[in-house]
Amino acid sequence: MDVVVLVSGRGSNLRAICSAIDVGTCAAHVVGVVSDRKKAAALEFADARGIPTRVVSLRKGDDRDAWNESLAADVAELKPDLIVLAGFMRVLGSPLLERFPGRIINVHPALLPSFPGHSGPQDALDGGVRISGCTVHIVDAGVDTGPILAQAAVPVLADDTADTLHARIQAHEHRLLPIVIHQIAIGAITLDPLTVSTAVADPSQSLSVPDA
Ligand code: GRF
Question: Is 134 in contact with 149 (CB distance < 8 Å)?
Fold first, then answer.
């Protein structure tokens, strides 16, 4: 299964996907990495690995519709079977969503539908919850609103900051996201947004997977 990964920053999830591919636990091939930021560290990693990269920047004042069209065109050129948003900090417009209906997934650092948006870990702390985690879901036109495919839970500790909580959540993202990609690749998860089947029915399974 050919995957295009969309990134904006560090790219630790991209690394986790590639590590899982390397050790044979994720039956996918990353055919491209697309970023909205030229300086994203994820691009350096992709370049070093020989993965084709594209940058589709969006600056203040730029035409958002034109950006959505370019993004869709660049991603489509890479001919992905699946698009993975791994730290991509933009809401997708209709050009990409319509070209790849139900074939775009995202990883989010909170247990959706709680705490969508840019600051999931901080919002979980502010909300006083004792458990948070990560969610992998199908992307629709909303902000972190699409059908949920899989989740993993982590405790929120009394002395947590947004950074320490996010780090604990990310360790689980790095396990869960490659598992979900693999399950899509082998047909264990169906991506039709109307009839989503979640193969990770027992969340404890995702928690017991060893580190990538
Ligand atoms: C992750 O925590 C992901 O859930 C969120 O953005 C972060 C990206 O981290 N959407 P990285 O760039 O993969 O390190």
Answer: no
Does 108 qualify as catalytic in the annotation?
A: yes
- pLDDT for 83-118, tens place per residue? 999 999 999 999 999 999 999 999 999 999 999 999
Find out whether the beta carbon of 121 lies less than 6 Å from any atom of ligand 1. no
Catalytic residue among 108, 137, 172, 182: 108
What's the rounded Cα separation, in Å, for the pair 83 and 76? 10
**In this structure, are strands 148-155 and 131-138 parallel, antiparallel, or unpaired?**
antiparallel
Q: Ligand 1: does its nearest atom lie under 6 Å from the Cβ of 86? A: yes
Mean pLDDT of the chain: 91
CATH top-level class for 2-185? alpha beta
* DSSP string across 51-114: --EEE----TTS-HHHHHHHHHHHHHHT--SEEEESS--S---HHHHHHSTT-EEEEESS-TTS
Say if ligand 1 is within 6 A of residue 87 CB.
yes
